[in-house]
Design brief:
It comes from Prunus dulcis (Almond). This protein has 120 residues and is mainly α. It is built from six helices and no strands.
Length: 120
């Protein structure tokens, strides 16, 4: 039975409808929105809407809105590994879309959900 669970998680890496799917073009240095969040546009929510659209298009919005929860590293190490990899890429994408002064305020967030809560 353990092998069935492991194989289903391996399949989720290949299933592009899975939130854990990472396309070969996704990388931590990727810029997914054109205008970074800064002090001038912070209050307009334009950045937030753009980021949500971009994350949704990549099936990653669940990581910032809390729908995709952090799996247990102890009870589900394979799923946790997939989750962490996606979470870290999303953290990078968000940090890449912030000016350095704003990024400095949220750099120590460890999950995409935490950083999103800090920003909104």
């Amino acid at each position: 039975m353990g092998n069935d669970r492991d194989s289903s998680k391996d399949e989720s890496k290949q299933d592009n409808s899975s939130p854990y799917f990472i396309h070969h073009s996704y990388h931590p240095g990727m810029v997914i929105i054109s205008k970074p969040l800064n002090r001038d546009n912070y209050a307009t929510w334009t950045w937030c809407c753009s980021m949500k659209i971009s994350l949704s298009a990549k099936n990653k919005l669940g990581f910032v809105d809390g729908i995709v929860e952090t799996p247990s590293a102890k009870n589900n190490p394979n799923e946790f590994s997939l989750w962490r990899r996606c979470n870290d890429i999303i953290l990078s994408w968000i940090l890449n879309s912030l000016t350095s002064d704003i990024a400095g305020n949220v750099i120590y967030s460890t999950t995409a959900y935490e950083i999103w809560q800090d920003l909104i």
